[in-house]
Amino acid sequence: MNTLNSEAFVLFGQHILWSDMVGNLFGLAALALGWRRSIWTWPVQFLAGLILFGAFYGHLTGSAGKQAVVMIVALYGWWQWQRGKGQGEDGHIAVRFATWRERAAMVAAAAAGTVAVALLFEAYPTLSWDPWPDAYIFVGTVVAMYAQARGMVEFWFAWLLVDVVGVPLNFANGYAFSGFVYVIYGALVLWGMRDWWLRSRQTARPTLEGAPA
User: Fold this and answer.
1) Which residue from 1, 107, 122, 123 lies 20 to 30 Å from 132 (Cα-Cα)?
2) Where would you find the membrane-spanning parts of this chain (predicted)?
C-alpha cells in the first residue's frame, strides 16, 4: 500500500498521490455507470472505496471509515439493483422520485447523522481533518448512495450537495485529484440528473386504455 500512497506527479503545484488518483477515477467510472443504470456501478464503487480506504488508512482514520461504509452500501446497492433488474422498459432498473415521506426521512437522517458523526470526530480529533465538513461529506455520501440503490432521482441532488463542500475541502487538505474529480462529478451529476428525471416521467406516465403498447 506504500506504493499506492506515493506521489504520482505534481499538477499546478499540487502533489497527486497514486491512491487518490486511481481510487477517484474508479469513483468517477462508478458514477458514469450509475447514470447508465448499469449494475456494474456497484462493484466499481466498491473497488473505489477499497483503494481510497488504503489511501486514508493510518493517517485519516475517519476518512478510511467513510470508505468502509461506502463499501457496505455498495454491497447493499448491488443487492437492490439485482432485485430490481428488469423493472424498467429497457431491462434496467426503473427510476422514480422519492415520496415526500422518503425525502423527509432522508433529510432527517442526513441532519442527525451529520451532527452525530461530527461530534464523534470532535471527541476523537485523530479521526478527521475537519470534523463538521468531513461529517457532512461522510453522511451525504451514504444518503446519496442509499437513494441511488433505491432508484431515486434525489440521488443526484444529494451528490450535488456533497460536491459543494467536497471540492474546496479536498483542495484545502492536499487531495488535489479528489478536488478535480469532484468538479467533473458535478458535470456528470447534472447530465445524470436530467436523464433520470426524464426516465422517471416516462415511468410515471399512465398508459391510456386501448393505446398501442
Assistant:
1) 1
2) 16-35, 42-60, 104-124, 136-162, 174-193
d(CA 155, CA 45): 15
pLDDT(166) > 60: yes
pLDDT in tens, 87-143: 666 657 889 999 999 999 999 999 999 999 999 989 988 777 788 988 898 899 899
Region class of 212: left (phi > 0), else alpha (psi between -120 and 50), else beta: beta
* Contact partners, residue 207, CB within 8 Å, separation at least 6: 213
Residue 105 in grid coordinates = 426521512
Task: Count Cα neighbours of 140 within 13 Å in the Cβ-side half-sphere.
Answer: 18
What is the SS3 assignment for 20-67?
Answer: HHHHHHHHHHHHHHHHCCCCCHHHHHHHHHHHHHHHHCCCCHHHHHHH
Q: Residues 128, 59: contact at Cβ < 8 Å?
A: no
Round to whole Å and give the CA distance between 68 and 141: 12
Length of the chain, in residues: 213
Kindly give the residue spans of alpha helices, DSSP state H, lying in 85-206.
100-123, 131-149, 154-172, 176-204
pTM, 2 dp: 0.81
Torsion of CA 83, 103, 69, 33, to 10 degrees: 50
